[in-house]
Design brief:
This protein is of the alpha/beta class. The chain has helices at residues 19-22, 79-85, 109-119, 148-164, 180-191, 324-338, 352-358, and strands at 28-31, 37-42, 54-55, 58-61, 97-103, 132-136, 169-175, 196-201, 203-204, 221-225, 244-254, 257-262, 269-274, 288-291, 294-297, 305-308, 318-322, 359-360, 389-390. It contains seven helices and 19 strands.
Length: 396
């Protein structure tokens, strides 16, 4: 994608009366790698009702919280940046399928995906050529009610998978709403589909959630975002014992070099469920499942992906979006590229020799005041970034 899109933001102007603006909290100022102050806004409410999840996408906006052509964020990433930052350029999955589970319908999803992919020089991924498929939580073709915030989330998810793994097939399973009951039904539906090797869940909620069978599918990399509120004890489903919890980083580009530090918003913590065996040797300082296991770009101002959501009410075009919602589908795509998803594939990330060689160890930054290693980065495992970020696929 040409750099002219980087500063375009969303071209639809003020959103004060739109459904998307109605669910957005006030904008938050964040520093960017350009030295400019950028403003960000969650596209879904930060605190969902009990029994419900929030999507975890965060968009760069004007200081008023409105999307518009005057947005001038930090340098956003396109597909080539994701591939270069994580040494994925030229790798292929052989058409393995990454499933994405999200809430609500999005009638223009395939159309918007086509625009993103063509703008980034990626091959077409359509229903007609067998690369793209959408279904409801019952496996049918009905369209659930729409929600503009979750539509932006879905656009980010499919665009992130496309960026990391251009030849991956993409399955989107849309639940009837954002209740965990329906999202979990959608996860189970995704796991039943032939060819699915990874399921990405870019949503969550804080609280004491027990392990749920919907997220326990040996042979599939079930990945989930760690959250966007910094240290909070570990969001669910990232805190499920059988899930690959995905944290986030800030990514800085200088020429062809990419460097990373812990993103201050990346979720982390000691959850309420049993510690999985693969974390036993990682010195997590947690007696339970620790969040996260691995990480990728998440800071909307420093490494946020330029997505396309032109058919979404109040969107209108390209916008820079991050959050651990960006990181989860990237990691799902990397598992698809590796092809190693037998059993519980999180265990591969903790093999020390491969981790040291094929993961970028994130050793600076913090997401809270709880210290090393649950909040503050260090050599080896830490809460916000897990074991690190991809350096190719050999650690997966």
């Amino acid at each position: 994608m040409h750099r002219k899109f980087i500063y375009s933001g969303i071209a639809a102007g003020a959103l004060a009366v739109s459904a998307l603006a109605a669910i957005q909290p006030a904008a938050t100022a964040m520093p960017s790698q350009t030295g400019m102050t950028t403003h960000t806004v969650r596209v879904c409410p930060a605190h969902p009702a009990p029994g419900f999840a929030s999507c975890l996408a965060i968009a760069v906006t004007q200081s008023s919280g409105k999307f518009g052509t005057k947005v001038k964020p930090a340098i956003g990433f396109n597909a080539a940046d994701i591939q270069a930052a994580y040494k994925l350029t030229g790798l292929q999955s052989g058409g393995r399928t990454v499933a994405i589970v999200d809430a609500f319908g999005y009638p223009g999803l395939e159309q918007d995906l086509a625009t993103f992919r063509s703008s980034n020089g990626l091959p077409a991924c359509t229903t007609a050529n067998g690369c793209f498929k959408r279904m409801d939580q019952n496996g049918g073709s009905s369209n659930p009610p729409t929600d503009p915030g979750w539509d932006v989330e879905q656009a980010l998810d499919v665009d992130a998978v496309s960026s990391a793994c251009p030849d991956c097939h993409i399955l989107v399973v849309q639940s009837n709403d954002n209740s965990f009951t329906n999202l979990e039904a959608a996860v189970n539906r995704a796991a039943q589909q032939a060819g699915v090797v990874a399921i990405s869940n870019s949503y969550g909620a804080a609280g004491n959630f027990p392990n749920n069978a919907a997220y326990n599918h040996p042979g599939i990399a079930v990945v989930a975002s760690s959250g966007d509120s910094g240290f909070d004890g570990g969001q669910y489903p990232a805190a499920d014992s059988n899930v690959v919890g995905v944290g986030g980083t800030s990514v800085f580009k200088s020429g062809s070099t990419y460097t990373e530090r812990v993103w201050s918003g990346a979720g982390s913590g000691c959850g309420h469920n049993a510690k999985p065996s693969w974390q036993n040797g990682a010195d997590t300082h947690c007696a339970t499942k620790a969040v996260s296991d691995v990480s990728a770009a998440a800071d909307p101002s420093n490494g946020g992906l330029i997505i396309y959501c032109g058919s979404v009410p109040g969107c209108g075009g390209f916008v820079q979006v991050g959050g651990t919602s960006e990181a989860s589908p990237i990691i799902g795509a990397v598992f698809a590229l590796s092809g190693k998803t037998d059993g519980y594939p999180a265990r591969y990330l903790y093999k020390k020799k491969k981790a040291k060689k094929f993961l970028n160890d994130i050793t600076s930054g913090s997401n809270g005041s709880c210290g090393v290693p649950v909040c503050t980065a260090r050599t080896g495992w830490d809460g916000p970034s897990g074991m690190g970020t991809p350096k190719g696929v050999k650690a997966f």
